[in-house]
Amino acid sequence: MTMSVQTDRDGELAESEIFHILGNDRRRAIVSLLADRRERVEVSEIATAIAERESETAQVPNNLYKSVYVSLQQTHLPQLEEDDVIVYDAEEKTIRPGPHFEEVRGYIESAESAEDHVLLFSLAVAVGGLVAVILSGLGLPLVTAVDPLLWGVVSLLAVAVACLYGLLG
Fold first, then answer.
1. Which of 66, 78, 122, 155 has its CA 20 to 30 A from that of 87?
2. Can you list the alpha helix ranges (DSSP code H) found in 24-100?
3. Residue 107 has what pLDDT?
4. CA-CA distance, 54 to 13, in Å (whole number)?
């Protein structure tokens, strides 16, 4: 039996408790998959989706599927249920969002949103740098004041900083 990280079942989850819950790839995947559906989902569907992610193919080896299914049944689903993140119907083998689901889902979505912002910023800086190098090569007066190589170096440096921020942030 897994131990719940939650100490006060009536209050909100502490940030450290949410990080503990989401500290496992399979639990994060359960929350993400359930967030996409917003309804009752069969455990077999969740196990299949996680096994596909882990095998990186649509043709999932049966032993991987079984391993994922068993770990969900024995470890991850009971813990998520104990922490009120999901409601797990062990008889019907289904799950649905629980009282703390939105709290936990919010952490996943904010992390994904931050990644999207870093990617968009990196793309914008790369395209801006490329445009500056092209305009400099065409001899535009304002842009030619700076060497095209410097435009390229500054752009690549800004992309590197954005990527580093994304990795560390």
1. 66
2. 25-37, 43-55, 62-71, 77-82
3. 72
4. 29
Other CB atoms within 10 Å distance of the CB of residue 24: 15
Q: Which residues contact 37 (CB under 8 A, 6 or more apart)?
A: none
Put simply, whether the predicted model's pTM sits higher than 0.85 gets the answer: no
Closest among 81, 169, 82 to 122, alpha carbons compared: 169
| First CA to last CA distance, the chain | 34
The answer to whether 162 and 121 have CB atoms below 8 angstroms apart is yes
CB 128 within 8 A of CB 155: yes
Token pair in block for residue 106 = 């919010």
Backbone angles phi, psi at 93, to 5 degrees: 55, 50
Query: Is 128 buried (19+), middle (13-18) or exposed (0-12) by CB count in 10 A?
Result: middle
Beta bridge partner(s), residue 41: 95
